[in-house]
Amino acid sequence: MSAKVISGIETAKAIREELKNEVAGLKEKYNITPGLVTVLVGEDPASQSYVTAKNKTAHALGIHSEQVTLAADISESELLKLIENYNNNPEIHGILVQLPLPKHIHEAKILHAIRPDKDVDGFHPVNVGNMVLGEKCYLPCTPHGILELLTRSGVKTSGAEVVVIGRSNIVGKPISNLMMQKREGGNATVTVCHTRTKDIASHTRRADILIAAVGVPKMITVDMVKEGVVVIDVGVNRIGKTVDGKAILAGDVDFEGVREKASAITPVPGGVGPMTITMLMKNTVQAARQAHNLP
């Protein structure tokens, strides 16, 4: 058999259409325009590309979007002052500081400075704590996107054996927590594997749902999964360049091999990636509603 390919492009497109209608409704009924600011420090090409894509998506949905690009040598205190200005700006509902930051700036200090009700990335300790407790909060964008992919693809998570490879604060830890919670899209039995796990394959072969977020190209091979597994590949690894200089990307999963055994699988690119920006937009619209006490 060959797996059903779960398209993040198509799923994101459907959600963005829903958001576009919701934003139009907020403008028409309440004269509210959701506002997002993205802050980029330095000239890292990958970060520039991400920020440009976020702004382009926001504009397409009717969200007011501002981009602030700062010199790499900006002081930490100057960056904190900028964040405080946007914290106090009622037209901005979401603040995103693009990571990574230059080494002289303490990332945690910057992320903690963003007001929790404007933390549309879902990284502030208040939002992380509420997520763990199962309370209302902004969910981190990539894990939120994974949940949407599973739900909208009809994948049953209740009672499923889920194996997560990777324990990052951005993907591994939050998706593990969300999938074990007593909620729709959760109720799974979750195993987390990482660099100190002995015999990872013995765990992955038990998985009904396998989520790979480790950053090692094609680490998961066909002999490491069971028949019918659902595979969510979060990895985006640059493994070379084409003759015209474009990056060749590979996931953490050997797509061609594993798809012959899996029941469903996400591709790289075109899987989880498009969902991350879409969930950022969803959180921004949620933040605008929250700021105006709308349901």
Give a description of the structure.
Helix 2 crosses helix 10 (273-291) and helix 6 packs across helix 10. The protein contains 10 helices and 11 strands. It folds into 2 domains: 30-116, Leucine Dehydrogenase, chain A, domain 1 (Rossmann fold, 3-Layer(aba) Sandwich); 141-273, Rossmann fold, CATH 3.40.50.720. The model has no long low-confidence stretch (mean pLDDT 96). By secondary structure, the chain is an alpha/beta fold. The strands form 3 sheets. Strands 1-11-8-7-5-6 form a 6-stranded parallel beta sheet. A 3-stranded parallel beta sheet has the order 3-2-4, with helices on both faces. The chain has a two-stranded antiparallel sheet with strand order 9-10. Helix 7 links the parallel strand 5 and strand 6 (189-193).
**CATH H-level superfamily title of the largest domain:** NAD(P)-binding Rossmann-like Domain
Number of distinct beta strands: 11
Radius of gyration, taken over Cα atoms and rounded to an integer in Å: 19 Å
Side-by-side strand order of the widest sheet: 1-11-8-7-5-6
CATH fold-level label of the largest domain: Rossmann fold
Largest β-sheet summary: 6 strands, parallel
Share of helical residues: 25-40%
Number of discrete domains: 2
Name the helix and strand elements from N-terminus to C-terminus, one letter apiece. EHEHEHEHHHEHEHEEEEHEH
Question: Which blocks of ≥5 consecutive residues have pLDDT under 50?
Answer: none
Q: In CATH's first tier, which class of the largest domain applies?
A: Alpha Beta
- Average pLDDT number: 96
Structural class: alpha/beta
- Rough shape? globular
Number of H/I helices: 10
